[in-house]
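Could someone model zinc ion with this protein?
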Amino acid sequence: MTPTIFLPRTCWFCLALGTLALRLDRKSKPYLGCAACGAHAFLRTPAALAGVAIVSPTVEQIRAALSTNPAFAMQQQEIFMTFKRELLAAIQPPPESAVTNGATYRDLLANDKRKVV
Ligand SMILES: [Zn+2]
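Reply:
Sure, complex below.
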């Protein structure tokens, strides 16, 4: 039986349900990997495990609130859009649009604005 620490949980990065799993790499070092967004977080020191143990239930609560509380969801979406705008202002766009299959980071941000949560 798989220990509960290795069971998939809500992704901290994309908030997809049951897609983030704690795994061990070839050298038996722990990392988090998401099957939905492709995020990988390498936990290089034992101190990094504290968040994995403690934060996951809070992420589940936040995800639940996003789907049951429209005002909360809208507020969080605005925080997310602000975050992405600030990131966009800080990063260097790829030199050629082909790098992102024709979409630039600005295109990706504009597409997100049109999505309904
Ligand atoms: Zn994810």
